[in-house]
C-alpha cells in the first residue's frame, strides 16, 4: 500500500505546467561560429561566419563582417602572388611596409608557372603568422626552394594587413659541418677579443 501511494504521487493524473518561454523584444545572438573554407571558384581561402539568432516577430539582425584572420590574410597574400595580382596583394599590405616593392619585382620577373606552395601555416595568433613553403614549377618541386616566412599584422581601417615580413630561404649550398667549424672559430675570437663584438 505504501508503494502504490508513493508511485501515485510521482505519476499524478494532472498534467504538469509547461515552463513559460519568454518572448524576445529585440534580436539576441545565440551563437557565432567562424570557419576557414577554401573556395574552389576563386582558389582562395576565406572566412565563413555563421550566426544563429532569434528575435520576436519581424526584427532583423545586421551583422558587420568580421575581420579576416591573420592566417587567412597571409594565404590570400600568397594567392595574389601566385596569380600575379598585385592589386589584391596591395590591399593586404599596410602602406609603409617595404615588402610590396620586392613582390612587385618578383611578379614582374617570374613566370606564372613558378608557384608558392604553403606547407604549413600557424593560425593561433591573430597578429603574427609563421609559414613554411616551397616553390613548384608546373606542379613539380623546384630545387633549393624551401623557405619559411614570418609576418606581423595589424588592423588598419577595419582590415587586417601585413605590416612586417621576413623570409629565410634554404641555401643552395649546404655548409654542414663547415658551418659549425666557422661558428666555433668566430665564437672563440669573440671570447678572446670581446671588443670585436662591437664591430658586428
What top-tier CATH class of the domain at 70-169 fits best?
A: Alpha Beta
Provide the gyration radius in Å. 29 Å
Number of helices: 5
Tell the overall outline. Answer: globular
| Residues in helix, % | 25-40%
Task: Identify the CATH architecture of the domain at 70-169.
Answer: Roll
Largest sheet: 5 strands, antiparallel
Overall mean pLDDT stands at 75
Low-pLDDT windows of residues: 1-13, 34-47
CATH topology of the domain at 70-169: Nuclear Transport Factor 2, Chain: A
- Structural class call reads alpha+beta
Total beta-strand segments: 7
Distance between the termini: 97 Å
Order of helices and strands: HEEHHHEEEEEH
Q: What is the strand content?
A: 25-35%
Keywords:
alpha+beta; single chain; Nuclear Transport Factor 2, Chain: A; five-stranded antiparallel beta sheet; 200 residues
Task: Walk me through this protein's architecture.
InterPro entries: NTF2-like_dom_sf (IPR032710). This is SnoaL-like domain-containing protein. By secondary structure, the chain is an alpha+beta fold. It has a domain at 70-169: Nuclear Transport Factor 2, Chain: A. Helices cover 28% and strands 32% of the residues. It contains 5 helices and 7 strands. The protein has helices at 2-10, 70-82, 86-92, 99-109, 177-192; strands at residues 28-39, 44-54, 114-121, 128-137, 140-141, 147-156, 159-169. Strands 3, 4, 5, 6 and 7 form a 5-stranded antiparallel β-sheet that branches. The longest helix has 16 residues, at 177-192. The model is unreliable at 1-13 and 34-47 (pLDDT under 50).
Amino acid at each position: 500500500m505504501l508503494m502504490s501511494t508513493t508511485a501515485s504521487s510521482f505519476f499524478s493524473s494532472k498534467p504538469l505546467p509547461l515552463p513559460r518561454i519568454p518572448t524576445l523584444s529585440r534580436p539576441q545572438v545565440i551563437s557565432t561560429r567562424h570557419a576557414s573554407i577554401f573556395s574552389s571558384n576563386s582558389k582562395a581561402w576565406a572566412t565563413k561566419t555563421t550566426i544563429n539568432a532569434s528575435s520576436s516577430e519581424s526584427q532583423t539582425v545586421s551583422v558587420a563582417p568580421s575581420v579576416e584572420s591573420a592566417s587567412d590574410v597571409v594565404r590570400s597574400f600568397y594567392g595574389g602572388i601566385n596569380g600575379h595580382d598585385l592589386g589584391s596583394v596591395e590591399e593586404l599590405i599596410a602602406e609603409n611596409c617595404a615588402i610590396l616593392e620586392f613582390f612587385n619585382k618578383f611578379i614582374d620577373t617570374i613566370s606564372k608557372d613558378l608557384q608558392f606552395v604553403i606547407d604549413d601555416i600557424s593560425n593561433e595568433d591573430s597578429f603574427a603568422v609563421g609559414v613554411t613553403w616551397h616553390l613548384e614549377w608546373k606542379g613539380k618541386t623546384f630545387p633549393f626552394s624551401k623557405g619559411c616566412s614570418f609576418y606581423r599584422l595589424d588592423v588598419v581601417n577595419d582590415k587586417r594587413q601585413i605590416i612586417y615580413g621576413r623570409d629565410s630561404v634554404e641555401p643552395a649550398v649546404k655548409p654542414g659541418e663547415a658551418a659549425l667549424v666557422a661558428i666555433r672559430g668566430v665564437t672563440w675570437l669573440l671570447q678572446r677579443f670581446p671588443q670585436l663584438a662591437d664591430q658586428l
